[in-house]
Write a structure and sequence with these properties.
289 residues, alpha/beta, Rossmann fold, 2 domains, six-stranded mixed β-sheet, four-stranded antiparallel β-sheet
């Protein structure tokens, strides 16, 4: 569906925000993971045709969207990280405005989307008075107005409470059954239960691309569990990578990333996805929070 070929984005001669990224993305939910400054936003802006790559190609269903941006724009939904609303417009009026821009003429769809993001009871309230989480949900609704084939969302759960986060993750997962959803985040828990693939970026480069199960499979035999006495903790921490530490009645319970048993009493543990990413031989631990 979407293919990136050797995509580069340079802002200065010596700084590449995106450095020779190649990807082939079919339908499904792709989690784009990396620390701030890893190149995630620059990559998404190029896919959304907001900026052009310095070099390389981005193909959508075979069309080069760098040269033919309209090939994707009518089939694209985009929610940027910094999303604002217009003063004096109600939630419904806000959607009506964007619906007109996108050529959507079905009033019932606007109501349906407001209900989908749990704002139907606030349709006639001025959106400028919404909380940050409510404005985020309104942004999600506008991104879905044209029933896009490609949906790009940047830090989608920022400002949402736990119930809203769960609802939104479920919504994105359902959309990914038949369409391409690209979710940028530095929080692994946001995408671990819905992503079909994960793309890990670090310093502009794509350092890993695989399924969540493959990341976890690779990390098996590299994560260990052990409880140590408190006085031994500092010495052990200086020698190995501690993933988690929690005090209990027996001492300090640790989960450790290591290629072999890190100390006496350590037993293999089933890695979580976050732990799996942190144990990759790439510099993924820097990219994950």
């Amino acid at each position: 569906m979407l293919e990136l070929r050797n995509v580069v984005k340079s802002y200065t001669k010596n700084v590449r925000a995106v450095d020779d990224v190649s990807l082939n993305l079919p339908a499904g939910v792709v989690g784009l993971i990396g620390h701030n400054g890893a190149g995630k936003t620059s990559l998404m802006q190029m896919i959304a045709t907001l900026t052009k790559p310095t070099s390389g190609q981005i193909l959508f269903d075979g069309a080069d969207i760098v040269k033919q941006p309209d090939a994707i724009r009518g089939r694209l939904g985009f929610l940027p990280q910094d999303f604002g609303v217009y003063p004096n417009l109600t939630a419904l009026e806000f959607l009506q405005y964007f619906a007109a821009l996108k050529g959507v003429r079905d009033p019932a769809r606007l109501r349906m989307l407001l209900e989908m993001v749990n704002l139907h009871e606030h349709a006639n309230r001025q959106a400028a008075g919404f909380s940050g989480g409510m404005q985020r949900r309104l942004g999600i609704a506008q991104a879905l107005l044209n029933d896009p084939d490609v949906l790009i969302v940047d830090e989608p759960t920022a400002g949402l409470d736990p119930e809203e986060r769960l609802r939104f993750r479920h919504l994105l997962s359902e959309i990914g059954f038949r369409k391409l959803v690209i979710v940028s985040t530095h929080i692994v828990s946001d995408i671990e239960n819905m992503a079909s693939h994960l793309a890990i970026m670090n310093k502009g480069k794509l350092v890993a691309y695989d399924t969540p199960d493959s990341f976890v499979q690779t990390a098996r035999s590299q994560v260990w569990s052990v409880t140590v006495e408190a006085q031994h903790y500092d010495a052990l921490r200086a020698e190995v990578q501690v993933l988690q530490a929690q005090r209990n009645e027996h001492g300090i319970h640790l989960r450790i990333a290591h290629s072999s048993s890190p100390c006496a009493g350590a037993v293999p543990a089933e890695p979580t996805l976050e732990e799996a990413l942190m144990t990759r031989r790439y510099a993924v631990q820097e990219a994950v929070v």
